[in-house]
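Workshop exercise sheet. Pairs work together: one partner reads the sequence aloud, the other fills in the structure field after running the prediction. Swap roles for the next sheet.
Pair: D.N. / O.F.
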Amino acid sequence: MITMDQIKQVANQGPYTPDWQSLGKFEIPAWFKGAKFGIFIHWGLYSVPAFNNEWYSRNMYIEDHPEFAHHVETYGPHKEFGYKEFIPMFTAEKFAAKEWADLLKKAGAQYVFQVAEHHDGFQMYDSQLSDWNVVKMGPKKDILGELKTAFEEVDLHFCTSSHRAEHWFFMGHGQEFDSDIKEPMEKGDFYWPAMPEPDNQDLFSQPYPSDEYLEDWLFRTVELIDNYQPELLYFDWWIQHDAFKEHLQLLAAYYYNRGIEWGKPVGICYKHDAMMFGSGIVEIERGKFAEAQPFYWQTDTAIARNSWCYTSTLDYKETKEILHDLIEVVSKNGNLLLNVGPKGDGSIPAKDQQILEDIGAWLAVNGEGIYDSKPWRQSGEGPTEVFSGQFQEANVKSYTSEDIRFTVKGEALYAFVLEAPTDGTVVIRSLAESADQNKPEFHGILQAVEVLGYEGELSWTKDHEGLHIQCPELRSELPVVCKITMK
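Structure field:
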């Protein structure tokens, strides 16, 4: 088992060292910038009760939460049936790593993050630091290891995430009444440390994470890195707390130096300015930017509005909405990470499968404007406003046929018409003729115009109002993509 001295040795061996000055030399892996579309997977013990969302382990111990009443009614008192009693029920009898990999590849994804450890503290991988993992309990198989093998066999980049930071307080409410979460607890225990929940918006909140806990977080993450060699590592919220800063820099330098040893570029996705800007990949949860950014970024969202894991009451998004998100993000210099939640038995719900297959079918036709593309000099045009920031999904955007987003690749400009016109006419105003060479309107020469996947009659003209594309037989419930080839 690795020691702290060995961690520090690797972290300081170069070319990276554990300080923001050095970590600021980080370069985002080239493959990631070309990939554009990835899949997040939230699957764990919380998928067994499948009630409300993936925070079941916390909320079932809070007396005024619906999870509390549901738990008592369904499973009995907490002191007799605590969260740990879900472990024997988590048998994953229908889990098939190869089937998952084939489905996600068919969906057009280029990389996949399976959650390695969520806030509940149950590890979805083999660990020597805790017995509370899928190899020693529950399925008794290395879920993460099997997925890594299956993903890499179909050329999906293997990535993973740790949500361990929040475990400091995540189970703490169970100590407020007669439950199975009781002191004393020691490091390595499933519920440990179960501290009182702080103000999670306070970056200096008390009780301040202890050195013992921070070192445990560090060692678990290093074990994950060394044993599974993920190409990207994702950290969820609360890692931005002041207590983690020194350990996070140590971990980042360790990981980046390990990536160089392995001969493959790696990176850390982070939220809430947990890391210094430029030392990793900026992440936005359920949100986006209004305009294209000069830096590369990623948004993570879910296939359902109300949960990241499978539940019996999922509020699914429509395929069109997800494609709108993908197009918006890619046109603004980012990637979309879309979460799916398998059932407790390891099967992927039929609705998730259908949405993924629909996305894959659309990308099979239109993906050339997505993959390996770059933003154009303007990200789009049209009347519908997009606002910058996280958690912007409460209201679904009603796009029109005038809402168009752009990408470029090679000699082509791709114009994504977010709502297909009912009359077969597309007008791209950003390509209007301009009599004044000093104005910033488009002055290039158009060589050819086509609509990807459309085989009907097509004609186009260009004037001071824009590029007019006539496609009288065009019918689509999903966005359509115009490919404009430049001379």
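Discussion prompt: The chain has two domains: 4-369, 374-486. What would you look at next?
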